[in-house]
């Protein structure tokens, strides 16, 4: 199993090329209440699971053919109108895991850096 975690703040999301800037902007504009409501809908329809990391951090866990995708916006008490950061974690158990587990650490770091710059 392989883990990759990227953390974005509103400033870094605007500064870094991200595949879907609209998705990032939408999440940064989501209130804590709306995020929890969206998660409840995902769970209700079986499209994602939810993990509660802390009082103001609820993660969406989506299963993919090669692992899981976790998206966790982090909110602060008294500032629930928008998250101050978003953490995206990819847990790979399939093809990507096999690809990475067979390579030297430095080559894996170069691959991850390449993926990051492409995002």
Topology summary:
Blueprint: E1 2-9, H1 10-15, H2 21-28, H3 32-44, E2 49-54, E3 57-64, E4 67-74, E5 85-92, H4 95-101, H5 105-118
Antiparallel strand pairs: 1-5, 2-3, 3-4, 4-5
Strand content: 25-35%
Structural class by sheet pairing and helices: alpha+beta
Number of strands: 5
Low-confidence stretches: 8-19
**How would you sum up the global shape?**
globular
Give the strand line-up of the largest sheet: 1-5-4-3-2
Annotation field: number of helices:
5
- The N- and C-terminal alpha carbons lie at a distance of 22 Å
* SSE topology string: EHHHEEEEHH
Q: Report the major sheet.
A: 5 strands, antiparallel
Mean pLDDT: 78
Helix content: 40-55%
Which radius of gyration do the C-alpha atoms yield?
Answer: 15 Å
Number of domains as seen in the coordinates: 1
Protein model, in words:
There is one protein chain. This protein is globular. It has a five-stranded antiparallel β-sheet with strand order 1-5-4-3-2. The model is unreliable at 8-19 (pLDDT under 50). A hairpin with a 2-residue loop joins strand 3 (57-64) and strand 4. It has one domain. The protein has helices at 10-15, 21-28, 32-44, 95-101, 105-118, and strands at residues 2-9, 49-54, 57-64, 67-74, 85-92. The protein has five helices and five strands, in the order E-H-H-H-E-E-E-E-H-H. The chain is an alpha+beta fold and 119 residues long.
Quick rundown:
By secondary structure, the protein is an alpha+beta fold.
Q: What key phrases describe this protein's structure?
A:
119 residues; five-stranded antiparallel sheet; 5 strands; 32% strand
């Amino acid at each position: 199993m392989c883990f990759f975690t990227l953390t974005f703040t509103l400033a870094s999301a605007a500064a870094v090329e991200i595949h879907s800037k609209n998705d990032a902007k939408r999440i940064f504009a989501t209130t804590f209440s709306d995020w929890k409501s969206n998660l409840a809908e995902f769970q209700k329809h079986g499209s994602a699971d939810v993990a509660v990391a802390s009082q103001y951090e609820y993660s969406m866990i989506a299963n993919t053919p090669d692992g899981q995708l976790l998206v966790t916006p982090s909110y602060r008490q008294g500032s629930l109108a928008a998250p101050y950061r978003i953490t995206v974690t990819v847990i790979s158990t399939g093809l990507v895991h096999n690809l990475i587990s067979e390579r030297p650490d430095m080559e894996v770091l170069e691959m991850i850096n390449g993926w990051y710059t492409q995002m």
